[in-house]
Specification:
alpha+beta; 9-stranded mixed β-sheet; 20 helices; 4 domains; 22 strands; Heat Shock Protein 90; ATP hydrolysis activity; Rossmann fold; ATP-binding; unfolded protein binding; chaperone; HSP90_C; 5-stranded mixed β-sheet; Ribosomal Protein S5, domain 2
Length: 628
């Protein structure tokens, strides 16, 4: 073969600086690109053999990565298709040309031609991100082919000459540049291979490793072991998402989860995705035990394309609320830019997004209908996830309303329909609106809960981080239904009825009582009113307006409510005109004593809400001792 020199066919002299600096978001992906190209070449020769297009010995498929730190080289070798000098010129030198289209055309009648499409072209050029010089040694599978060598120093000049390879396949030798010497480390290369190549369909060898092998038995008939060096194969070539669900056991799914998340708790359950029309998609999604701090749970779904890891930033493919799930999605139909690193939103992505939402909803409905008791036991872990989905996805809400649960303070669970039937007879107000009462903290709001339950009301528990948004969403979705936090008002006023308990005080007495309490409180953000309650109810109740409190809760969670979050807190102070303490205050002629009892009653109400702190709490304790 004569040596040939030339220039790479490109549109601009500046292509290499662009490739090196801007085309790839992370320079470690050079190894992913070159290893996946090698895997493609190995799969192609195997396919050609099965199609009768290659009659030679295919052999055991293998891609090998090797490091020579002293020589500052990394080599990626395969026993795949190989290339002729002409093919190098066609596939390597013409940057914008992909050999895939010609290959598919040639074998378009093959049943699964998509499997054998290679990614020639730009992927290979990621090699120059870390190299001063790149060398290709290759020998084509074609009869009579001669070995060829290609070298390029990162300029647009190349040289093709006779190669030294004696077996079919290709070796890419990278002469690593000074800025990229971090990659001349076994640990670093192993880390990258673990990340990107863990589930590639062809064995990837990276050096050797020491393992223990049985070596007979000792005098006590116990097995003996010896250390042996074996090939370090970094990948599992047939991960579970490539298999049929019928061929897998629960243990298989749990073992795979442990592979992905070695330190994670076992998942609650999982969904096996498998669709080939109108797009190709496989994968397994796991429902983890979702913690309250659900922001920390995200980016746990890994995206693959033909078993090559792409990214764990899957927000374009997976609906926002499903980001809480863990697992793997693999699709050759997901469009990627030239670096395979960023997703582009197109119709396929939108279809995949909808499909995954539907599959998740169907799985939850199936679990609920099949074994409601088991589903209810999981609800504390999946409730946050389901509520998030119902808030953010209309289609998910439509399905979710049949399997979402509302839990009351007694630990009983109800579907939306069941709960409405339960409380409507007692908790419908004078305008025909059903009022759902809820607590965000059963401990702090216990007094209010007990007062509501004495009236025959039921109280729901809404204590997850997302419940402030979920409550507002339910009000919009459920017909003629309102939700109120149980401490939004005194029990008598939570649900407006036609019958009203009147205060025994005259108008003049009510005015006097109001003035005494306003003076004792002396705070502009506390508004006082005298109301008629049962003599057994508390003498004073302090509440925050339901609307304002809810807006503040939502502001804490984010969601465009920061305006309310910055507003000062305002409270309502309800004085029970029928309580004996009020009569006692009115009966006293001593203004100091009136103020003392009024202040004590208000502080007691604040204490029950956990709102009495600092100097005011100290003063309350001193006053209590004095009054004993």
């Amino acid at each position: 073969m004569t040596t040939e020199k030339g220039s790479i066919s490109i549109h601009t002299e500046n292509i290499f600086p662009i490739i090196k600096k801007f085309l790839y978001s992370d320079n470690e992906i050079f190894l992913r690109e070159l290893v996946s190209n090698a895997v493609d070449a190995v799969q192609k020769i195997k396919r050609l053999g099965s199609l009768g297009q290659f009659n030679g010995e295919v052999g055991e498929p293998l891609v090998e990565v090797s490091l020579d730190a002293a020589a500052k080289t990394i080599t990626i070798s395969d026993n795949g298709l190989g290339m002729t000098a002409e093919e190098i010129k066609k596939y390597i030198n013409q940057v914008a040309f992909s050999g895939a289209s010609e290959f598919v055309e040639k074998f378009k009648d093959a049943k699964d031609a998509n499997e054998i499409i290679g990614k020639f072209g730009l992927g290979f050029y990621s090699a120059f991100m870390v190299s001063d010089l790149v060398e290709i040694q290759t020998l084509s599978y074609q009869d009579g082919a001669e070995p060829a060598k290609w070298t390029c120093d990162g300029s647009t000049s190349f040289e093709i000459s006779e190669g030294s390879r004696t077996t079919r396949g290709t070796s890419i030798i990278l002469h690593v540049n000074a800025e990229s010497e971090e990659f001349l480390s076994e640990g670093k290369l192993q880390e990258i291979l673990d990340k990107y190549a863990k589930f590639l369909p062809v064995p990837i060898k990276f050096g050797t490793k020491t393992t223990q092998e049985e070596d007979g038995v000792d005098e006590e008939e116990k097995p003996k072991y010896k250390s042996v060096e074996v090939d370090n194969i970094v990948n599992t070539t047939n991960p579970i998402w490539t298999k049929a669900p019928a061929d897998l056991s629960d243990a298989d799914y749990l073992d795979f989860y442990k592979q992905l998340y070695p330190f994670g708790e076992d998942p609650l359950f999982w969904i096996h995705l498998n669709v080939d029309y109108p797009f190709n998609l496989t994968g397994v999604l796991y429902f983890p035990k979702v913690k309250d701090d659900f922001d920390m749970q995200r980016n746990k779904i890994k995206l693959y394309s033909r078993q090559v890891f792409i990214t764990d930033e899957v927000k374009d493919i997976v609906p926002e609320f499903l980001m809480l799930l863990h697992g793997v999605i693999d699709s050759p139909d997901i469009p990627l830019n030239v670096s395979r690193s960023f997703l582009q939103a197109d119709s396929n992505v939108k279809k995949i997004n909808s499909y995954i939402t539907k599959k998740v909803a169907d799985k939850l409905a199936e679990l609920f209908n099949k074994d409601r008791k088991a589903y209810e036991e999981k609800w504390s872990n999946i409730g946050l996830f389901v509520k998030y989905g119902m808030i953010s996805e209309e289609k998910f809400y439509d399905k979710g309303k049949d399997f979402a649960l509302l839990t009351n303070t007694k630990g009983e669970n109800f579907t939306f329909e069941e709960y409405k039937e339960k409380v409507a007879p007692v908790q419908t107000d004078k305008n025909g609106t059903v009022v759902y009462l809820y607590t965000t903290d059963t401990e702090k709001q216990d007094g209010f809960i007990q007062s509501a339950e004495k009236k025959g009301y039921d109280v729901l528990v809404m204590n997850t981080p997302i419940d402030s948004h979920f409550v507002s969403s339910l009000e919009q979705k459920l017909e003629k239904t309102q939700l109120k936090r149980v401490d939004a008002s005194v029990a008598n006023q939570l649900i407006e009825k036609d019958e009203v308990l009147e205060s025994v005080l005259s108008e003049e007495q009510s005015t006097s009582v109001k003035a005494i309490f306003e003076k004792a409180i002396a705070k502009p953000n506390f508004s006082v009113e005298v109301v008629g309650l049962s003599p057994d109810d508390s003498p004073v109740t302090v509440t925050m307006d339901e609307f304002m409190r809810r807006m503040k809760d939502m502001a804490k969670m984010g969601g465009g409510m920061s305006f309310y979050g910055n507003m000062p807190d305002s409270y309502k102070v309800a004085i029970n005109g029928n309580h004996k303490l009020v009569s006692k205050i009115l009966a006293s002629a001593d203004e100091t004593e009136q103020s003392k009892f009024a202040k004590q009653a208000v502080d007691l109400a604040l204490l029950s809400q956990g709102m009495l702190t600092g100097a005011e709490l100290t003063a309350f304790v001193s006053r209590s001792v004095e009054l004993i």
